[in-house]
Design goal:
alpha+beta; two-stranded antiparallel sheet; 38% helix
Length: 149
């Protein structure tokens, strides 16, 4: 019986990790806050890069951002919302306020997600992130499409 329970727990954790099961509001609350960002690379020569919110520098990206958050992790989310989804947030300030929450909710709705205005793992996986090069080239792709690492 203990083995069955342990396997069920591991299976549930794996499903959440790969996004097969949605996160309820209670699960969002239990997911740690994004406190920094990590640089992800793409392309055969790692020429393309994007910056994704994480827990600590180069930490896990299984985290949330919500109203009241601030920092470069919010700035890079705002940048993606502006450049990839045409959201007019004005000057990017790295503060997750009402404009950022509303813009994120609109984008979540367009992606078929619950438009709760909270950034979390499901939103991260569906977002087309702003990718750039040192030559200032730009495009928008999901982490999966870009084969990010």
């Amino acid at each position: 019986m203990k083995l069955k329970r342990m396997l069920a727990t591991l299976g549930s954790a794996a499903a959440l990790t790969v996004g097969l099961v949605g996160l309820s509001p209670a699960a969002h609350a239990a997911t740690p806050a994004c406190t920094d960002y990590a640089i992800y690379y793409s392309g055969s020569s790692n020429a393309w890069y994007t910056k994704v919110p994480t827990v600590g520098p180069q930490g896990t990206n299984f985290c949330t951002l919500r109203s009241g958050a601030s920092g470069m992790q919010v700035y890079y989310l705002q940048d993606t919302l502006n450049r990839c989804y045409g959201q007019d947030l004005g000057e990017l300030d790295g503060k997750f306020g009402p404009k950022t929450a509303a813009a994120l909710a609109r984008v979540q709705k367009s992606l078929g997600l619950d438009p709760d205005g909270v950034y979390g793992p499901q939103t991260r996986d569906k977002l087309a992130w702003h990718w750039m090069t040192l030559q200032a080239d730009n495009h928008c792709k999901t982490l999966y499409e870009a084969h990010a690492h």
